[in-house]
Amino acid sequence: MSGFDGAARVPGQRAQAYDQGRIFQASGDQYITEQRIFVQQAPGARATEELGPCTVRAPLAGRTPPVLRDRRELMRRLREALAAGGESHVLHGMGGCGKTAVAHALFQEAQREAGRDCFWINAADRLTLRAGMLGVAAELGASNGELAAAHAGRRPPADLVWRYLGSAALRWLLVIDNADDVTVLEEGGWLRSCELGTVVVTSRVGAAPVWRESVRHPVGVLPLADAARALCDLAPDAGSVEDAELVARRLGCLPLALHLAGSYMGQPLLEVCSMTDYHQRLEDDEPTALLDQGAAPGAPSSRQLIGTTWQLSLDALAADGAPEAVSLLRLLSFWSAEPLPVSLLSRVGGALLPTGRLESALRGLLAHSLVALTAVPGASDGPSVRCAQTHGVLLDSVHTGVPDDERAALLDHALRPLESAADGPEPLRLITPHVRALLGRTRAGDAAGERVVRLAVRVTRQVYEAGDWTGALALGEATAARGAAWLGADHAAAIEARLSTGPVLFRLGRYEEGEALLRAARETALRVLGADDVRTLDAGFELQRVLHRLGRLDEARGLLDEVLAGRLRVLGASHPLTLKARCELLELRIAQEDFAGYDTAATALVADCDRHLGDAHLITVWALDAQAKGLLRDGRAAEAEGVLRRVLAGQRAGYGDAHPLVLGVVLALSRAQAAQDKRAAALAGAREVAEGRSRMLGEDHPETTAAREWLTTLVNR
After folding, report:
1. C-alpha 626: how far from its chain's center?
2. Contacts of residue 211, Cβ cutoff 8 Å, sequence gap at least 6
């Protein structure tokens, strides 16, 4: 209740207050902070009051961590500014990045200096800022009459405050915290400077006209090593620095998230939680809710909670007439925290996000430090790609609050650009993280679930073909699990998802696992899709490749003959998959030492591939490779070397120099050179393959072992 003359009663409550009294009553828990400034009036006049801070001499918010990690350069520049005076400095960045912590640390250092006044003001809204600044004037000697005139609007309050700051007896530091609504500073003319002191402002808004005379300092996340040490500062017994790095990486090294996680692990009550345990819980549980458990009990400020800290910015955007910015951030929450090509955003449009409003929505998010623009290197010979990037903890938090009635539309908005980009010009490495994230954000029962699975299958195959077999396996396994859970194991898309991981297991040398997966998937495809379905034939093709590597050559040959007959029947003799099966048959014949008519068959296959596909097609290159191996087997090493050089050029043109399959051609070329006593060249090639396979595939991969053995053979000759 506000001040009044006489008594007042609160209905339903047994209490009363008189004169300047207050009544605070509640039937449940409440946290109440009352801040008041009383101005002495003439006798008989009504008392006036203005909400204001209890004190401007101490920070009313903020904290300094045990050790302020990775802010050394920023603190050095601020200390120099404090010593020189006469400037205003703006610390800007997204919520939770530690702007207030830096200001708090500087404030504490400045307070310890003799002969310096320090003031802390909260600029969260107009009333609080005005009351705080007038509190500074009062501390510096402003009279009650002057304060009353400023409160009543009879004189400009900012002029009064800055007159006293400009004539202060001591040098000073003024911190204006939480200035996220920059219009609060602009309208009152509050942000000024003078030689006697230094102003430090914290804000989520990095670009605004009001900062034109200020020195701006971006404040971002911590480097990984410092983030891990920050966790260890708060929870020294929870695990090693290496364990802390895993948690810090998952949290994107965001200071607020690190503080909440470290506080939770560092002060166990019912159970001890290690870094390893916490990391697992971040993966298994709802990370936003888990992080908020690290807040101090009854934390009154939404800025201290991951779940609500960014809602302040979203509310400000909505109040400024940019509700599309909120929808855009919700859309971004369906994607990954990795860089997102801006070209994808240009393909978004719909009822929630009209195309004409996307530009202003993105600008709003950029202004409030919720999104950053960055340039990512493109292809080896192409320009950089302009991308938008959003912090992962922010995305987790926002996604948790997506309204159920908007999910379907947002999921469709997130899916369509990725579907069009899967075969577009954007680099695959920039698309894949967002497909993986979308797969994780989709729920069972979402109408778009089948589309998401089919998109993930397409991208899994592309990642596999690009040579990132570990990445393809991770995406393929996640897609297969969700496809079976959402659609049922017998759904065609779920079958395709399981089949997409078979070739990856084959390339990774995990032959037994590959056989089990492919055999089960083929049996399902036979039962559900039929023997002549292309997916059933694909399953048989991949299964025979695994059987080949396992040494079960007769079984592989029978299955391959069946696949080849089916592809001829269903696809025709000129189809790439039919020609690919013929290439595989030549490979299998070499393993079986079936060389009767081999050269004739290889020559005919190369001619057919060249005619139907062209000499640059990778299947034509594969046919040439099979032909070269036959020549080498016949003792025609010089001819084989010439063909293999064509193969190597074709592989490098099609895959790039860093693709693992290119190394197989280099190994074959080394064998052809060794057969001609070109020992130096053969050794160089063998060493390149052994080192390359070790780096790309690992020491325990069967193909790495084969390359090591060949290198040893050459060295010992």
Report:
1. 43
2. 90, 182
Global pTM reads: 0.83
Q: Is 222 helix (H, G, I), strand (E, B) or coil?
A: coil
Question: Considering only CA atoms, which of 705, 707, 697 is closest in space to residue 665?
Answer: 707
pLDDT-based confidence at 295, cuts 50/70/90? confident
Residue 589 within any structural domain of the chain: no
CA gap 427, 451 in Å, rounded: 21
Q: Side chain identity at 342, as an amino acid letter?
A: V
**Residue 88, beta-bridge partner list:** 199
| Co-location of 347 and 408 in the same domain | yes
The DSSP line for 412-462 is: HHHHHHHHHHTTSSS-HHHHHHHHHHHHHH--TT-TTHHHHHHHHHHHHHH
- The tokens describing 286, both together, are 């709802």
The answer to whether residue 397 sits within a structural domain is: yes
Same domain, 288 and 375: no
**Tell me, what's the pLDDT at 38?**
41
The boundaries of the domain holding residue 120 are 72-218
Which residues have a Cβ under 8 Å from the Cβ of 367 and sit 6 or more positions away? Answer: 205, 206, 207, 208
390 and 325 both lie in a single domain: yes
Token pair, residue 129, equals: 């800022």
Residue 383's pLDDT is what?
85
Residue 19 lies in a domain: no
Hey, how many other C-beta atoms are within 10 angstroms of the C-beta on 530?
Answer: 10
**Residues 316 and 361 grouped into a single domain:** yes
What would the DSSP string read from start to end of 591-620? HTT--TTHHHHHHHHHHHHHHHH-TTSHHH
431 with 356, same domain? yes
The token pair at 318 is: 């909505």
Token readout for 668 is 């074959």
Q: Is the pLDDT of residue 169 over 70?
A: yes
Parallel, antiparallel or unpaired: strands 215-218 and 340-341: unpaired
